[in-house]
Every structure is written in C-alpha cells, then in structure tokens.
C-alpha cells in the first residue's frame, strides 16, 4: 500500500469513528445590563450514528437551549458543535440554513405547521426549500403521510386536523429530506397520553426505518425509557449519562 493510500485509509477510519454529534466545552451565557446568566456551563458529549438519546433535566436546566444550539438556531458563547462531520460553530446564517436543510429534521412541541398549506404541502416544504421539485418529492411526501396513518388526510389543512394528527404531519415533514439527524423538543408535550404514546411509537418506528440519529428533549420518563441513552442536565451541566433501562 502506498503512502497516499495509507493516508486516505487513515482519513476514512477517522471519518467512520467520528460521531454523528460532538459537543465540546459548550457554553451559553446571556449578559443583561444587570445580570450574567450562565445557561450552559461547559458541557461535553457525543451521540453516535443511529443512536437515540434523550435529554432530561428540570425546567431551567438548559435542555431547550442546547437543542436550539444543536439546530443552529442560536450560537454558543464558546465551545464547539460538530454535526455529521461539519463544524457549525460560528458559521454564517446562510451556510447554516443550507446545512440545516440538508442535515437536520426538527419536531417542535407546538407543531409549527403553516396554516395556509395542506398536510401534503407542509410535508413537501423542506424538500422544496432545498431546491427539490417534481413527482419524486410528492411520492415521498405521500409515502410518509401513509406511514403516519394520514394518507386520507393529505388534502386537509391544519385547522381541520386534531393535535395528534398535526404532530403526525410534523413528524412526516421532519423526515422528508432524509436528514441524518433529527431533533425533537417535547414532541408529545401538547398531547394526551394516548396520542403521546402513538406519536412516540411513530417517531421510533420512522427513526429506525430511516436510520436517523435522534436527540429528544423530554420531561417524560416513559419517553426517555425508550432511548438508547439518557443525558441529564442540571444547572447547565451534564450531571449524568446512562443507558436507558430496558423494558
């Protein structure tokens, strides 16, 4: 093997070993005229490809702030975030928007569907925003709506759908462009227990089917028990990492 081949092989092995998400010495500090608030105080963790990690902790521990930083919706005060091999720390918003469109799916607690678009059009939106068009996108959107049990509701507007149905549309939308990373912020928080359980099962099923890395913020121990690993935050620090108890 030549020196060049050895070098390339080494780079490939490093790439294979690189986790889907790497967070290093991450801080987020908000400075007001009278107060300095440390929301995240230097946290470190990795998430492996295909892993399902639940982020838990009391209110005010920094969970949602962390998820917003992972999504590139906010910038850290210091530290580093690497997503699927890309260092997103400090990149400009245009580049972050492109990266977010290709690599990150997001499921919010409050659905965030556009009221003027049908279920199918809402699912198609990420595909269109990344330059996709044509029948293949519509076929993919319909397949996803079928997967979440809404094939017969694709022409309905959000106002015509229940909360559980809207969250199912949001799930389908999050998977539309096959993102390698899916972030979910309390995805069952606005739902009753029955609908919440249904959404959880769909989320896990789609996650496995699409081979996606999943990071989910939740207060719910039932949700976190289905994860591969639980990371617990308190006062802006990682205080515990553990494998989830197996049912």
Describe this structure in words.
- The chain has a single domain (49-75, 92-243), classed as 3-Layer(aba) Sandwich (Rossmann fold).
- The strands form 2 sheets. A 6-stranded mixed β-sheet has the order 6-7-8-3-9-10. A 4-stranded antiparallel β-sheet has the order 2-1-4-5, covered by helices on one side.
- The mean pLDDT is 88.
- It is an alpha/beta fold.
- The chain has helices at residues 3-17, 63-70, 93-103, 119-129, 135-147, 163-174, 193-210, 221-224, and strands spanning 21-31, 36-47, 52-56, 78-83, 86-87, 104-107, 181-185, 213-217, 229-234, 237-243.
- The chain contains 8 helices and 10 strands.
- Helix 4 (119-129) packs parallel to helix 6 and helix 5 (135-147) crosses helix 6 (163-174).
Brief overview:
The protein is of the alpha/beta class and 247 residues long. 37% of the residues lie in helices and 26% in strands.
């Amino acid at each position: 093997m030549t020196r060049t081949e050895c070098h390339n092989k080494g780079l490939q092995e490093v790439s294979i070993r690189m986790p889907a998400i790497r967070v290093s010495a991450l801080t987020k500090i908000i400075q007001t005229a009278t107060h300095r608030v440390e929301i995240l105080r230097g946290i470190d963790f990795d998430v492996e490809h295909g892993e399902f990690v639940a982020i838990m902790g009391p209110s005010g521990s920094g969970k949602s702030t962390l998820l917003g930083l992972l999504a590139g919706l906010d910038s850290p005060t210091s530290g580093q975030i690497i997503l699927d091999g890309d260092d997103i720390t400090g990149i400009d918003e245009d580049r972050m928007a492109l990266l977010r469109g290709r690599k990150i799916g997001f499921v919010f607690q409050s659905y965030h569907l556009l009221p003027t678009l049908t279920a199918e059009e809402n699912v198609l939106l990420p595909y269109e925003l990344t330059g996709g068009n044509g029948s293949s996108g519509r076929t993919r959107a319909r397949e996803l709506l079928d997967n979440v049990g809404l094939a017969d509701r694709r022409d309905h507007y959000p106002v015509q759908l229940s909360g559980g149905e809207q969250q199912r549309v949001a799930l389908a939308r999050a998977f539309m462009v096959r993102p390698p990373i899916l972030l979910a912020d309390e995805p069952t928080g606005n739902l009753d227990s029955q609908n919440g359980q249904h959404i959880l099962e769909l989320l896990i099923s789609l996650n496995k089917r699409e081979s996606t890395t999943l990071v989910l913020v939740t207060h719910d121990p039932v949700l976190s028990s289905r994860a591969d690993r639980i990371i617990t935050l308190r006062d802006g620090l990682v205080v515990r990492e553990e494998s989830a108890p197996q049912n």
